[in-house]
Amino acid sequence: MTPVARHPSIYLLPIFILSGFAGLIYQSIWSQYLGLFLGHSSHAQSLVLMLFMGGMALGAWWASRRSTAWRYPLLAYAAIELLIGILGLVFDWTFQGITGLAYTYLLPGLQGQGATALRWLLASVLVLPQCVLLGATFPLMSAGYLRAQPQAQGEVLAGLYFANSIGAACGALASTYLLLPALGLPGAVMVAGALNILVAALIYPLARAGTGYVVSAKAEDPATPPRSSKKSGHSTPRIMPVLAVLCIALLTGATSFVYEITWVRMLSLALGTTLHSFELMLAAFIAGIAFGGLWLRHRADRMASPLRVAGWVQVLMGLAALASMFVYAQAFEWVGWLMRVIVRSAEGYGLYSVASAVIAVAVMFPAAFFAGMTLPLLTLALLREGRGEKVIGQVYAFNTLGAIVGVLAAVHVLMPMLGLKYALLVAAVADIGLGVWLLWPIASREKAPRRTGSRTGAFTAVALGLAGVVAAVSLVRFDPLVLSSSVYRHGGARLHDSAKMLFFKDGQTATVSVFETDRGAGPVRSIATNGKVDAGMTVTLDQEPSGDESTMVLLGALPLALGHGVDRVGVIGFGSGLTTHTLLGDPRVGRVDTVEIEPAMVEGARLFGDRVSRAYTDPRSHIVIDDAKAHFAGSGQRYDLIISEPSNPWVGGTASLFSDEFYAFVPRQLNEGGLFVQWLQLYEITPELVSSVLDGLVDHFSDVRAYLANDSDLIIVATPKGRLPELNAGIFDQPALRAELARVGVHGLDDLRDTFAMGDAALRAYPALYPSPRHSDYHPILTLRAPVARFQQGYVGDVESIMTAPWPLTRDWGGPEPRLPRAEGSQLNLQVLQRRTTAQLLSQRLQHGADLPGGGDHALADALRTLGARCEMEITPLETAGLVFFLAGETVPFLAPEEREALWVKPTWRPCPLRDPTVIDALALVSAAASDDHAQVLATGQRLLEGPHSAGLLADARSGYYLFGALQHAAWASGDTRLARALSDRYWDALGPDARASGRLRLLTYMAALGKQDR
């Protein structure tokens, strides 16, 4: 033999690490690709896994049938790796071509089951061939390696299992933390393809090195008498039929995947449902499997009975799974402590991720460690019986088929019927039972002298198993108030002391809970998925409505107010059901299809009772359990209105409903004149991420508007063709709808108009302020960065800031003229409405004085009034100008025209004549701004900037900010882009740092430089 043939492990194990690395990249990236096409429903996820695992099982079985006939199995392995690599390099091009063809030409002509069947056929064409090839790699590599080291079967099998698994664990982390952020889905899958080609190139010279790799036909004959293991000195009798061992491989594969699926759901409640946390859990599980193989590597060949060892491994795996419950019960306290001590920054998120990985390892690693030994031990047992290398593929195939059984059982049976704890318990009992059966003398068919010891071992295993089960059942409690705490957001390991759990169910895709809390203002009932509250409402109508109520009601009411009745409505996300309930309050609506991915969500929301009853009882309401995009693509129907209110984009799978591709897809689902409504959170997000969403949305719609339901919920309304109509009062003619709106403080059309925040031009300009790559299905910026923003407790205050700017931006961009605050009745919780009340008080104080001295802004109004009454405004011109500009910013945008005129155009509070040019021009500028005399604003503003106090005005935080903004606003309103740019070039750097950092001033400056854009 050549040195290469004599010591293949020097080369083969590192090469197989690369193969495992690439394989897990495929699994991770293909899951995301297919999720885009098939959806993220539980059935879609299960079928995706069936494609993966079923294809690999087929490949392993095929390899088991063919490898014995090949002289050089490693050469076949190299050819397969090369073919996988080539397919990986062209996968993105193939995927986008096939799915684009389907969406454009094939799916529109199909409905229901026909569309579903077509999607699954195309998905199978896309990934099944590669999955079959991937399944053949382990048996072929094992066959080639075993021919080089036939006396070290256990070492070879365990070593390869370790190498492939540790590569896979690294691939899981690399795909999410390195490749996906840098290269997106297309680049990541191409990297995997290139690695496969590299593996093929490295294997080729080893595959051709000598004839020592050939195995005799005799050795492959299943009827050949058992061989002795020279290395261990044991002669292994045939002790169990092959089919029995294969069934054990299937069952242990099933229990292992029940563990994995259940642990992922459990840890998602503690760590959050993000792509990052999922990949950390996956890596922890696979790493446990890898190190189990590593531990076994140098011990397997010394074992007298691999099946007996496998029996103990099964028992210990079940016990470790039971022990994981005790560890998991402490995980919420650990995460809560982390959230309290780690700084909420990007660097802190990295530390949080490392700590999350440690928690995942503590829960998963022990049982996964034993799971990593089962396949090598079962394969070794059959090899020692002289079954030949074909059993490698057979055991691998049955183990992989078991994974399919385990996932289907966990997702569709065990978790929904028994819950997380007992799903894990059932799998653990199954493992312990398998272990006891393997240890039992009758099962092992041992000779009489050894049966007594075996029986003792079996009884010991039974006793340990019973003790573990009793301990887990009696000592571990999965408290719903803990599991629903959303500790990964707020740091509290348990819901508020007042909380009462009303509903708790481990559904097919998420754990759903409904609970009540009372923090002093009355009970609030909330519905949550994996701990994250998706909707909350007050229990009685006597209480003030929650912020969520205004959002859900306005999501339904605003688009209805933009038309005169819609026939067919689609709603993405059920939540509490209040949006659907609101829509159905309008008798002009013909049908509402509400698409919800999790059945338990619909079940739990029934506890909101009469507040959402129409969603359940109205015959026009149709609840569809499916992935939203998959439903719309396969329904064959077009809609007059589509409302998208999914969960937050950091939640795994949700970000695809905020992508560029989704916004390109939606217009094709709308009828002529149809509307699209998008809810977008402004909390736990950054301006850059909002830009990444808006940039895609505005590109696919001809007219877009934004409304604010409260300080953190943005409602975007868009149409793909033409212009959006104006709001009308027709919805207030519908009694049920009028009652829902009045409940949240909308009593008429004027109240509805008050929610206007930004028009089309402003929304199109906003992304330029915070440059960010556009969120795409293939470059998922939101998926990767939103969890970081959540951890940092990000908040986008720009929208509310624009509505309360010291210049009338919202009014001039399409909003209403300010009006007197409502004297009675509730009103929306919007800062702009509160600022109107404040402006009224300031105006009264400045014009008429006050009996008592005020504080804060009131004190400034008192000071300016005193200066005017005493004719002392010119003593300190800069300070006076600062007071004038500040109070102008607090009043002009929020007062009705006649009030602005009385306060600033024809003031009575400053009777004295003025001589100082700075004070005269400051008051003249504000007077012009109050009467919308933009030419006068530009003239007086430029005089101020060219006057003797120019530097002082610009440097002053209040004066410079207001003055520069007033000039830019006037330039925008006048359409003078040249002047706007000149002002910016000359004076921007002279402004204070706070002014230059202001989002609303930057947006105004940018829009003034662009000019009014007619679309």
Throw out a few tags for this protein:
about 1000 residues; alpha/beta; 14 strands; elongated; disordered N terminus
Query: Percent of residues in beta strands?
Result: 5-15%
- Class of secondary structure makeup: alpha/beta
Helical amount among residues, as a percent range?
A: 55-70%
- Residue stretches low in confidence (pLDDT < 50, at least 5 long) are 1-6, 210-238
- Largest sheet, spatial ordering of strands: 9-8-7-10-11-13-12-14
Work out the radius of gyration: 34 Å
Could you say which overall geometry the principal axes of the C-alpha atoms support? Answer: elongated
Major sheet details? 8 strands, mixed
Q: What average pLDDT do the residues reach?
A: 89
Q: Could you walk me through the main structural features you see in this protein, from its secondary elements to its overall organization?
A:
Helix content is about 65%, strand content about 10%. Strands 9-8-7-10-11-13-12-14 form an eight-stranded mixed sheet. A four-stranded antiparallel sheet has the order 3-4-5-6. Strands 1-2 form a two-stranded antiparallel ribbon. β1 (about 230) and β2 (about 235) form a beta hairpin. α34 (about 915-930) packs antiparallel against α35.
